[in-house]
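Running this now, will post back.
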Amino acid sequence: MYLTYITDETSWNHLVQQLPMSHVLASWQWGDFKSRWGWRPTRVAWHDGAGVVAAAQLLRRPIPRTPFAIGYASKGPIGELDDPVVAQRVLADLVAEAKRQRCLFVKIDPDMPTRTPDFVALLRREGWQRGEPIQFPNTATISLAPERDELLAAMKSKTRYNIRLAERRGIEVSEGSAADYALFYEMYRETAARDGFLIRPRAYYLDLWRALDRQSMSHLLIAAKEGTPVAGLILFTFGETAWYFYGASTDLHRRDMPTYALQWAAIEWAKRHGFASYDLWGAPTDLNDESDGLAGVWRFKEGFAPTFREQIGAWDYPIFPLGYRLYNEAIPRFLAWLRRR
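Update: finished.
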């Protein structure tokens, strides 16, 4: 087995899409976008005699006023990590690369279900420890193999009712263009203020959405009533999967259930365009914990009959243990200060 550095966009995306656990956050476009916001991507692939068996996009972010950085393999590594030989080599090489780039630690969060305990056991043996998640630890997916009527029939009766109610009340869903992302951001900002979650600056989102849109990887759907936009969502697509990444709504016509119409339209869109799976991107840590921040969102998503996917979450390897400990103590305090302000 040997490692190579990939510097070509087409080659990278092709090999990533062929590997198990492929994810849009491991795509070339995601790394390219993050490079404009303080991160530097390094893309590596592992080969054996038969071809590529694993890959990782390592993002490096400098820590201001220090010679150090943090390393993050966004939704990686991906590949045949159920093979212990492959997994052990990949983890060792990732640590070596992060050390070479003077990272205090390296974080991974592969799209791997918890039903792979051997990989978790390997992580523990090699000195990895559970880390703070960057992405949602768990998710839920819908197979798009069934016919349209079967997908609808599998949903909860209340969800089907709300989808039809939205149609009766004149909610219409259409595809937006790159010019409509600014409109969507305003709805997203209103949603954040109403629901109490933090969002990034406008320029960040517009850069992301438009960059992926240029590669046909970001797709905006807008729900309107009588010509007035009232809700929207953004899908990211890569390989065989469509991800529901962002949703937003205004206070107008909320009783007309535009978000249900949007979600069903997105599922139909993904099936029509040949995707195999629809990922709802984010589910609670514990489905029975009503205090979980995603509990309310999950009640909405659950109505569409997804399969809950509990995943192994984020894991860190402390390369400089003292610096890693100080970093983990300082960052939560800084975030708490930001929230107070």
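The first helix runs from residue 9 to 18. More later if anyone needs it.
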